Amino acid sequence: MSQPRANTVETQRKSPLWQRLLPWLITLGCFAYLYGRLDAAAAAQGLGFLPYLLESFQNVSWGKWLMLMIPYSFFYFLIDSLVTWRVINWFNTRVRFRDILPIRGSAYILSILNEQVSKGAMALYLNRRDGVPGWQVASSMLFIMFCEFYYLLGWATIGVLLRWDRFPEVFHAIPWIALAACAFFVVFNLYFRARLARGSTLRDRPLLHAFRNGRAWQYGALILMRSPALLAAVGVYTLALRLFGIEAQLGDMLGYLPVIFFGAATPGPMRSVAIVLWVILFPDHEGEMAIFGFVQHNFFIFFNAMIGLIFLNRASRELFGDASGARIADPP
User: Fold this and answer.
1) Is 194 left (phi over 0), alpha (psi -120 to 50) or beta?
2) According to DSSP H, which parts of the chain are helical?
3) DSSP symbol at 16
4) Are 120 and 126 contacting, i.e. CB atoms less than 8 angstroms apart?
5) Model pLDDT for residues 124-149, shown as the tens digit of each residue
6) DSSP three-state, residue 60
């Protein structure tokens, strides 16, 4: 049996039942918690649950909100595509930036359910289009996710240090986590540079291709390339909160947002963990924050999916056939 066929069979195996149920259980738990908090807040104001939420909806200028979110979504798409393009060119194959846009945009459609699934779709696309081995592209996607962790943790640390006294005490652990993460990275990088545990064969696995070939400056460069998206989000989310009648400072949001984005990356529909974090961080505005978190994160993923629809025909054509409609041959 050929290697591509073996890979196909492997990817078709179903994941364990608990892995498929876990995201839904997390979501149900989050919404049960939200219902309890919101129902109590509504009762304290002498309102029913739904009237309490509708009141929060009615007080927002949705036109101004859209004027913030739509440009930010396009800006994020360009930054995200830039990061993907740069990593693919470093570790896989030479691709033009404009050729990354269709698959990065189309993958947003899949990310409605799971961001990791969308990265898998990009690996399949580059395997079919450019003959890049699937495991090698998957390695590049892991490299991006690894850098995203340090990117969010780094900015969260800066935000907490700038507003130390304004953050809940639990946030004071973030700088220590960052320090431990930096120590881990030193060991991690030395290992993949073959300066530690030279007899180990783990680093030679195909899935670790990008880490084996990556240099320390490339990790830093990727964090810098991604950072404009977070800085833009700090401004956009601060202004959006004010449309919901909640005053927030840029420095506070610099610490809050990376932590909330960690929650948004938790597998599961509706970005439920991120919504819970908004309610926890602004306990005096449960209704407004539940609505804010729900519309903010879900508009973002659904509007990104609409961006993906712009490129879907081209991505499908390049994945399943050439310009004349012929089927692309399977890579040898």
Assistant:
1) left
2) 3-12, 17-44, 49-58, 62-91, 97-110, 115-130, 134-162, 174-192, 209-213, 216-243, 250-264, 272-281, 286-320
3) P
4) no
5) 778 777 788 878 888 998 999 899 99
6) coil
Those residues with Cβ within 8 angstroms of residue 314's Cβ, 6 or more apart along the chain or in another chain? 102
Query: Which tokens hold the place of 164?
Result: 């130390």
- Sequence-distant (≥ 6) Cβ neighbours of residue 172 within 8 angstroms: 160, 164
- CA-nearest of 294, 273, 298 to 111 is 298
Residue written as tokens 């529909």?
269
> What single DSSP character describes residue 47?
-
Q: State which amino acid sits at residue 79.
A: I
Rounded to whole angstroms, how far apart are CA atoms 264 and 274?
5
Question: Which residues have CB under 8 Å from 282's CB, separation 6+?
Answer: 246, 288, 289
* Percent of the chain's residues with pLDDT above 90: 29
Query: If you search the block for the tokens 């609505």, which residue do you land on?
Result: 291
Q: Structure pTM? A: 0.83
Please state, in angstroms and rounded to a whole number, the distance separating the CA atoms of residues 21 and 14: 13
Determine the Cα–Cα distance for residues 14 and 16; give it in Å rounded to an integer: 6
